[in-house]
Amino acid sequence: MVENRPWLDFLAHAILLTGVVLVAFPLYVTFVASTLTYDQIVTVPMPLLPGDQLIENYSQVLRAGSTKGSAAPVSTMLLNSLVMAVCIAVGKIAISILSAFAIVYFRFPLRRFFFWMIFVTLMLPIEVRIIPTFKVASDLNLLDTYAGLTLPLIASATATFLFRQFFLTIPDELAEAARMDGAGPLRFFRDVVLPLSKTNVAALFVILFIFGWNQYLWPLLITGSESMYTVVIGIKRMISMGDAANDWNLIMATAMLALLPPALVVVLMQKWFVKGLVETEK
Amino acid sequence: MEKRVVFRSRWLPYALVAPQIAVTVVFFFWPAAQAVYYSFLVQDPFGLSSQFVWFRNFTDLFASDSYLESFKVTAVFSLLVAVSGIVISLLLATMADRVTRGALAYRTLLIWPYAVAPAVAGVLWAFLFAPSIGIVTYFLRKLGVDWNWILDPEQAMLLVVIAATWKQVSYNFLFFLAGLQSIPRSLIEAAAIDGATPMRRFWTIVFPLLSPTTFFLLVINIVYAFFDTFGVIDATTQGGPAGATQILVYKVYNDGVKAADLGSSAAQSVVLMFIVVALTVVQFRFVERKVQY
Question: Which domains can be identified in chain A, with CATH numbers?
Fold first, then answer.
């Protein structure tokens, strides 16, 4: 703090608190709605204090989905989301750390070409090439499979760039010493590069886990059977009718289940999250 | 920058890049090439035969009112999301940078919406603003506002802007906070000793020093509004009413998946690819300048 200005401190706290309340308001209403009965929700205005249906609503959606929209159990969806998020995060990290290592620590004829090939994909979000990608996936018989859910989302330039930037900062002396001691490239990778990359891997994992968990358009297209729905898709499938006719209490319980895991990851692994976010985008 | 010390192997580097290149070729280049190919074709309604029509899909697109309307909608939407997101998060970050007590708690409570999927954010806000049962709708009615985004185009736009901005504020906030914390304290202190008020210090020192961050966030937010908000739109307005919130990405999906007009959808994909490339170039130009700066 530069100087003592009590009114300014007061103003700062007031603005921050307003921000926190505005940000949290939808979450609070969602939570309250997930503890009410259907009849309580459709009374206008709905109660703003939690009801007593918490256990009923959550066990209903976990076991058998909603009663009016899709009846797929949310527990399966949560498992699908988890598999998808972990596969995407691990897959992305694995393939990009290897390719970044090759591009930084080797000189080979097609190096620049490969680098640019990966670089170009930085520019192409899946939303843009959605229909042809869907065709490719269906030609490869990947519809309704975990491979189809994850593989098209695994290739990304961002992680490769992050690792490349990081590898360039590893002192040359380490590689020199390793070579003098007779270590080959793979040994060097396993014993020096991997341990040094630990914090980057952790930070990236947090970001990519959230990225994978929150995917929407791609799972929407590629999953046809209810047993493959992710939880984000599941919510959408429960909203089948207009406005008041949906089981909003059950939808909101599902929404809570859909947003809690990534939100917990952000809050509990805040340090890695902030590092990952600020560094991957720079 | 290149490494001085490298390893030698004839096959190993290829084996190491192979997985990434394979996935990239199969799921990026092949689909992108197909998008370009389809964009030159017109298919009959049953998908049985197709005809090569050169640029007709593109000329049709730019002659169609609904496409131009979608462009306008996208421009308005992304500008509103980017500007309001940046203004709100800059205000919050400046305040968070000032307070000493509870700074970490504020940060924690402000960043979690980043973890919420755009589609889920859409569902939450659609519920709050639901025309018949929404709690916010109820309060708005009490204030005399007749709220029904299902029928009113401007309210529909406002709803998707709020949902999209709510989710993005946390992201901008973290970048602004990092930017603020990297400004040397001595600069601010010197200005304070010279008698500059906090307001004046902000506009003459802090804001100019934050301009690289602001510009970076502007590009990132526009990209976000262009592409990542698909879930927000699909979970709330689905492009309605009457196309009032149909952004370009949503139209690609609508025309390609729902209306099964492959040629037009592919042409739209190609146009979008050009936009992404342009935005990326802008961003990299800027990043390079920042490195020198």
Answer: 74-237+254-280 (1.10.3720.10)
